[in-house]
């Protein structure tokens, strides 16, 4: 089976590609080749099969046509313009997050056999803020352009699946904590920064209050969910292809308490509260509590505790993050 990963230069794409390269399979399917695409050619993980990297703009139909081959059995679509960037550049967000998704789906439609298509959607497809509880049948009502683009992408995946062009799964990822490397333009970037920066001896800015709650998951849990979505029985999903995975609800204060336990009072002291109304307006609309009954029944594992999430970063990503800072 040929595997395609878009956005493969990002931290989740790199981790997913490494896992597939190490294991050589996705579920019951042996991987025979993998194509990794991003705006700049992604790194190539060591693998026992051929790995091709492409610098590609997924909003270009010709680029997507190059990605999808007759033997493509799995597409994991991670490429996106993230939340604050999509809000700042309205046209770019819709071009990449919606037009790019459609171009990729159209390339899949040309295949004789429908590939599994894993679409990374987001908590941002919902609103309601801190008091909301999102159930499996809650209707997405986005409060920002990024969420609207992801919700629209879910509808595309739904209809292409209904028509038999792909076998789609839309995975609504929580805020991923702790992201390795440097902060990005996601509005939720602070959630990683307030743990990552203090653990490597740097200051972090906190734009929300300590009682602010977030729905999070570690990169390790996210990769596990992506692989499960890639290999599960699609028929078990029925018509509804959107999944709220079992993430963790945690307050900023609880995150800082866990930081202090892991790195001491000195680490916690590196977090400085600085109000950011723009970030607060975006993340403040996102709900933090999800009833992920359906995902659990479908075999998606629970996210780690916040203490375990910090331990995952220290084990998996601390040294890489330090190396990236020194190289910059």
List the helices and strands and how they pair.
Elements (H helix, E strand, L loop, with lengths): L1 E5 L4 H13 L1 E2 L2 E2 L2 E6 L11 E6 L5 H7 L4 E6 L5 H6 L1 H20 L6 E7 L10 E2 L10 H18 L4 E7 L1 E2 L12 H11 L4 E3 L6 E5 L1 H13 L10 E2 L4 E4 H17 L2 E3 L3 H7 L5 E2 L2 H5 L8 H11 L1 H10 L1
Parallel strand pairs: 1-4, 1-6, 4-5, 6-7, 7-9, 8-16, 9-13, 10-12, 11-15
Antiparallel strand pairs: 2-3, 12-14
What do you see in this structure?
The structure is a single chain. By secondary structure, the chain is of the alpha/beta class. It is 42% helix and 20% strand. It contains twelve helices and 16 strands. The strands form five sheets. It has a seven-stranded parallel sheet with strand order 5-4-1-6-7-9-13, with helices on both faces. α1 packs across α7 (219-231), α2 packs across α4 (90-109) and α4 (90-109) packs parallel to α5.
